[in-house]
Write a structure and sequence with these properties.
Layout: E1 2-5, H1 9-21, E2 25-28, E3 32-36, E4 48-51, H2 55-59, E5 72-74, H3 77-85, E6 91-93, H4 99-108, E7 113-119, E8 131-142, H5 147-150, E9 158-161, H6 164-173, H7 176-179, E10 183-186, H8 189-195, E11 201-204, H9 210-216
Parallel strand pairs: 1-2, 1-9, 4-5, 4-7, 5-6, 7-8, 9-10, 10-11
Antiparallel strand pairs: 3-8
Helix pairs in contact: 6-8
């Protein structure tokens, strides 16, 4: 199948390689570009570090070194891998698959003061009785596509969407004349909701990980090359 991957380029290349190994024709047209931004080191002691995106440890820079021994609780295996690669030594992968699910887990563990490293456009979550200090360590800017690219969307069998912001941008960029012919798959129900209606087919992953996203779109069934 012909699959369009819309995540930021460094991640999109990895996804495309997985799809190609499954026998698909994958192209990468990012809808978002991430970049580090300056951030001020907090003062005082923390019980834990909360990481809800792999971009945070990847882009936090040298400031993260001061928290190398602080227990880091991560959403998703990819975030945990990025945390270890950034030099964090006490990395914990929980069953939480979203930021909203992570903080109740930390509260249940008896943790109190949490440092949460995030992107600039973080979705607010309930404090769960915790003291959460947030630091924005990266930005995620939406990208535009030229008209020639938008008009070529109808050659894809599936479009993969990874965030609500990117899904809304895709909906904005996709010509109405092509919309009804496209099938989209999103990492969550929230992502698909942000893409709006009027697609040929729109499906969401059962759980927010790439394996489930591939499964939702039937991309795991292709025989390898």
């Amino acid at each position: 199948m012909r699959v369009l991957v819309t995540r930021p380029l460094h991640r999109a290349k990895e996804t495309a390689a997985k799809l190609q190994a499954l026998g698909h024709d994958a192209e990468t047209w990012p809808l978002m570009e991430t970049a580090p931004c300056p951030w001020a080191l907090p003062t005082g002691d923390f019980d834990a570090l909360a990481l809800t995106s792999a971009e945070a440890p990847r882009l936090a820079g040298a400031g993260l070194a001061g928290f190398a021994d602080l227990p880091a609780y991560c959403v998703g295996g990819r975030t945990a891998e990025a945390a270890r690669a950034a030099g964090l030594r006490d990395v914990n992968l929980t069953d939480a698959r979203t930021a909203e699910a992570l903080f109740p887990v930390l509260a249940q563990k008896g943790l109190h003061r949490i440092l949460h490293l995030t992107g600039r456009d973080v979705t607010p979550v309930a404090q769960q009785g915790l003291t959460i200090e947030r630091r924005v360590v990266y930005t995620a800017e939406l990208l535009d596509w030229p008209v020639t690219r938008r008009d070529a969307l109808d050659r894809f069998d599936w479009v993969l969407l990874y965030s609500a912001r990117a899904a809304a941008q895709f909906s904005k960029l996709c010509p109405e004349s092509i919309r009804m012919s496209l099938k989209i798959a999103g990492l969550s129900h929230k992502v698909i909701a942000a893409a709006g209606v009027g697609w040929n087919e729109s499906l969401s992953a059962d759980v927010p990980d790439e394996q489930s996203l591939f499964a939702a779109a039937g991309l795991l069934c292709q025989k390898q090359g």
